Amino acid sequence: MSQDKSVADRLLDDARAKCARAESPTLGKIAVIVGVLAVLVSPISILGWVFGAAAVGLGVAAVQRPVTAKQAKIAMALGAVAILVGVFFFTLNVAQG
């Protein structure tokens, strides 16, 4: 009666996989990319709000990982700027029209 992997080996593999996910910088990079995209489309107010909120949300999720904390803070700042620019252009359109 031999098993392919013992329970300890499976638990060790699961712990290594979880640690590798936590140390991955991918979420931080995605958050920054969405933040930059949010700032670029923010003059179109609704897109600025949507992408800005997405950047803030991804930033909040990424700030919990020590590897991506700096990128996450940048993404949250970019998202907030995009939302503010979107609000400015929305207000400007309402005032003109």
Textual characterization of the structure:
Helix 2 (26-41) packs antiparallel against helix 3 (45-62) and helix 3 (45-62) runs antiparallel to helix 4. The termini are far apart. This protein is mostly helical and 97 residues long. It has four helices and no strands. The chain has helices at 7-22, 26-41, 45-62, 69-96. The longest helix is centred in the last third of the chain and has 28 residues, at 69-96. It has one domain (25-96). It is rod-shaped.
Please specify the SSE layout and strand pairing.
Elements: H1 7-22, H2 26-41, H3 45-62, H4 69-96
Helix pairs in contact: 2-3, 2-4, 3-4
Task: Give a short synopsis of this structure.
The chain is an all-alpha fold. The chain has helices spanning 7-22, 26-41, 45-62, 69-96.
Key attributes of the depicted protein:
97 residues; 0% strand; mainly alpha
